UniProtKB/TrEMBL annotation:
It comes from the Eukaryota. GO terms for cellular component: cytoplasm. Pfam families: Ank, Ank_2, SH3_15, zf-C3HC4_3. This is RING-type E3 ubiquitin transferase. Its EC number is 2.3.2.27. One of its GO terms (biological process) is protein ubiquitination. GO terms for molecular function: ligase activity; ubiquitin protein ligase activity; zinc ion binding. Residues 607-642, 654-689 form the RING-type domain. Pathway: Protein modification; protein ubiquitination.
Length: 748
């Protein structure tokens, strides 16, 4: 509906130049008059830029480079936002209101230069560092960063020593060298300038500032800067003056803090004699001992300790000096603090202890030192993670190894978070295989602990299709039939995932009615999840077969009254699962096939060269198996048929079930990639997708007697995933059945 003006009201603040011209359509001109190829700068304050970026690409920390660098417009999107490319190669999207078109300096004007431009600097130029502490901290991000030791250089004049490829400057100033953003300095004289020119008097003054300490008139500032520079004589002189404040600040820091971070022990001793406040805090709440930890100054910490400084002091983030030393990776400072009695397990504002920080920084040496000092492994941070949980979440096996080797009590490995997750749950959920192995084998973790949803680590691994974790847990003895809060076992989860993946493939088909073009590929890719590439072993069907082959119960029903097989509309997979389970129950898993009974299996399986190892190398092109992998390189002709050996392939485990060794040779492709049980279900080689015309058992490849299967037997005996009828109506009926299965699963 239309709006009616009732009374005038005061509007908010606005930028006049940002208002549209009355009567002009936005689409009739480029935003801000910018075009592709224009050079642009950002001249607004950071807070304003961040506000204007809402809805126009947002703001990230990586965009700080844009505040001090000229970029080139490389695109204008459909929303009229501007895409700008910078010398670093990064491209960022901006609200056009943020950008200002840069003035291009003609070559004829280059001699005059433009203040702040990066191309104006040369080695040997005299430059003055920015006075504004907050501004220079902002400008230094991504350009060498800011260090507190750079504090004395503010406002000082230095000489350019080197210009880096990214235009950053290495400047000698105050007897030290630092890397600066070119926007953080201003040129005061060129390398070739003569003192006798028109500005000779000013240049002489600047040169004096280059080699002499600036006298600001503020004694407190002079004291802080002298302490930071380690100028003992000047500090002594200033301390003798009655109007100097030993605890005075410059740029938010005291002389004690500046000397502590830079390791000037002699100055610290002078200050301590003047009854300096060792617990004075800067704007971040950091005390002198925090600064010493940051600067890796163990000797300073010793002096401060003798001066009764609190080694457990906290800053505004509730970090102790130990937190800072761990985060900076200063091992010797960590040892010094612990030797002087620093508490090893205090928590910061996030609840993290130094142990948490050492794990995050992957500093196993510091982690070991903290544990030896009695750091508490069981303390949890604000997210409920203790040190073991944190290492499992981060996937840090070396830290987990250290923690497990120094656990004060073995049952800590099974401690739960508030949601019932143990370290093993977290490793299984995030597929951190090596961490899980350590918890299982070194930590003897309980494999069957359930979280608040009554899920075990095996439930989580199956749900996320983490095959290696599943195999690890099952082989370590995890119970396969534990039910979660919905009554589902891991096998329920595997088959539900398999069915959903089948349905997604069917739904992705553009036209299921076109059998000739759409049906064949889908049929080939749906058989037991074997349609994925050989390297893709994380299929739900593979996991389901593995669980069934290891004794998972096929008859357990969940709270919906469904057994695992009820969740699987794939008849071939159901048949395979039943067969695997039956063999496991009857003790037939791994038993010999009838064709092997008539042969001397020991003779046929041992290497024909060394007789020590079993045969495990397939020769090509003959397809015989005569030697072990160690002896095979020495064989030039097959020892069975005397044919020239052109290829040697080591026989690995079955790519489908990952439980048994591959034992059937597919012809004509010549691949051996599946065990007897899985091979009987295949129409195509799972490795190369070639049609299987003949199957040759392992024993036959070794020179024994066996029975070869042909595709005639396969086509008449095996049941495909979905029967392909000539009538399209039956096809659609099968699809509808699968869609109904999907609906049933969604309702659970």
């Amino acid at each position: 509906s239309d709006l009616k003006c009732v009374q005038d009201a005061k509007g908010g603040s606005f930028y006049r130049d940002h208002c549209p011209v009355l009567g002009e359509q936005n689409g009739n001109r480029n935003p801000g008059g910018l075009q592709i190829g224009d050079l642009v700068n950002i001249d607004l304050d950071l807070e304003i830029v961040q506000s204007l970026q809402h809805g126009h690409g947002g703001w990230t920390d990586g965009m700080f480079e844009t505040l001090t660098t000229t970029g080139t417009v490389c695109g204008i999107d459909e929303d009229h936002d501007i895409v700008v490319q910078y010398p670093s190669g990064n491209r960022w999207t901006f609200n056009p209101a943020v950008l200002t078109k840069a003035n291009v300096v003609r070559s004829g004007d280059a001699a005059q230069g433009a203040e702040g431009g990066t191309s104006q600097f040369q080695v040997g130029d005299l430059v003055q560092v920015c006075y504004d502490l907050e501004r220079i901290k902002l400008l230094q991000r991504g350009h060498g960063e800011w260090a507190e030791a750079m504090l004395p250089t503010l406002g000082k004049v230095g000489r350019v020593q080197q210009i880096y490829s990214d235009s950053d400057l290495k400047v000698e100033v105050c007897g030290t060298s630092w890397t600066y953003n070119p926007a953080a300095v201003s040129k005061v004289a060129s390398a070739g300038s003569a003192i006798s020119n028109a500005s000779g008097e000013r240049l002489s003054q600047l040169l004096k500032k280059l080699f002499e300490t600036q006298e600001s008139g503020d004694l407190n500032e002079e004291l802080v800067k002298a302490a930071a520079n380690g100028d003992v004589a000047k500090v002594e002189d200033l301390l003798k003056r009655p109007d100097v404040d030993v605890n005075g600040q410059c740029a938010g820091h005291t002389a004690m803090q500046a000397a502590s971070q830079n390791g000037h022990v002699d100055i610290l001793k002078l200050l301590l004699k003047q009854n300096v406040d060792v617990e004075a805090e800067d704007k971040d709440g950091d005390r002198a001992v925090h600064h010493a930890a940051f600067g890796d100054e163990g000797a300073v910490i010793e002096v401060l300790h003798r001066g009764s400084a609190d080694l457990n002091a906290r800053n505004k983030r509730r970090q102790t000096p130990l937190h800072i030393a761990v985060n900076k990776g200063h091992l010797q400072v960590v040892k010094t603090l612990l030797d002087f009695g620093c508490h090893p397990s205090l928590q910061d504002s996030e609840g993290d202890t130094p142990l948490h920080d050492a794990i995050s920084k992957k500093r196993d040496d510091i982690l070991a030192v903290l544990l030896e000092a009695g750091a508490d492994v069981t303390i949890t941070n604000n997210n409920g993670f203790n040190a073991l949980h944190h290492a499992a979440l981060r996937g840090n096996p070396s830290a987990m190894r250290v923690l497990l080797s120094k656990l004060p009590r073995p049952w800590i490995v099974d401690e739960k978070k508030d949601d019932g997750y143990t370290a093993l749950h977290l490793a299984a959920l995030n597929n951190h295989v090596e961490v899980a192995e350590l918890l299982v084998h070194q930590g003897n973790a309980n494999l069957d602990i359930q979280n608040v949803n009554q899920q075990t680590a095996l439930h989580l691994a199956v749900e996320r299709q983490h095959t290696q974790i599943v195999r690890l847990l099952v082989r370590a003895g995890a119970k396969l039939d534990i039910q979660d809060k919905d009554g589902d076992t891991p096998l329920h989860e595997a088959l539900r995932h398999h069915t959903l993946s089948q349905l997604r493939q069917l739904q992705d088909m553009q036209d299921v009615g076109k059998v000739d073009t759409a049906w064949e590929p889908s049929k080939n890719t749906l058989i037991m999840g074997l349609g994925t590439q050989g390297a893709e072993k994380k299929s739900a069907a593979s996991i389901a077969c593995f669980l069934a082959a290891n004794g998972a119960d096929l008859s357990i029903r969940n709270k919906k009254g469904q057994s695992p097989l009820d969740l699987c509309p794939d008849p071939s997979l159901c048949k395979a699962l039943a067969k695997c389970h039956k063999e496991k129950v009857s003790g037939q898993v791994g038993s010999r096939s009838p064709s092997m009974i008539n042969n001397d299996s020991e003779t046929l399986e041992e290497c024909m060269v060394c007789s020590d190892m079993k045969r495990d190398t397939l020769f090509g092109p003959c397809g015989h198996i005569a030697t072990c992998s160690l002896c095979s390189p020495r064989v030039k002709k097959c020892l069975i048929c005397k044919e020239q050996v052109q290829s040697r392939t080591k026989i690995e485990e079955c790519v489908v079930c990952s439980d048994k060794k591959a034992a059937v040779l597919f012809q004509p492709c010549g691949h051996m990639c599946a065990c007897e049980n899985c091979a009987s279900l295949m129409k195509k080689c799972v490795q190369c997708r070639a049609v299987v015309e003949r199957r040759v058992p392992f024993i036959t490849c070794c020179g024994g007697k066996g029975t070869e299967d042909t595709t005639d037997d396969i086509s008449s005996g095996n049941i495909p995933v979905l029967q392909k009828d000539k009538d399209n109506t039956n096809v659609n009926a099968d699809v509808q059945k699968l869609q109904q299965q999907l609906q049933d699963i969604k309702e659970q």
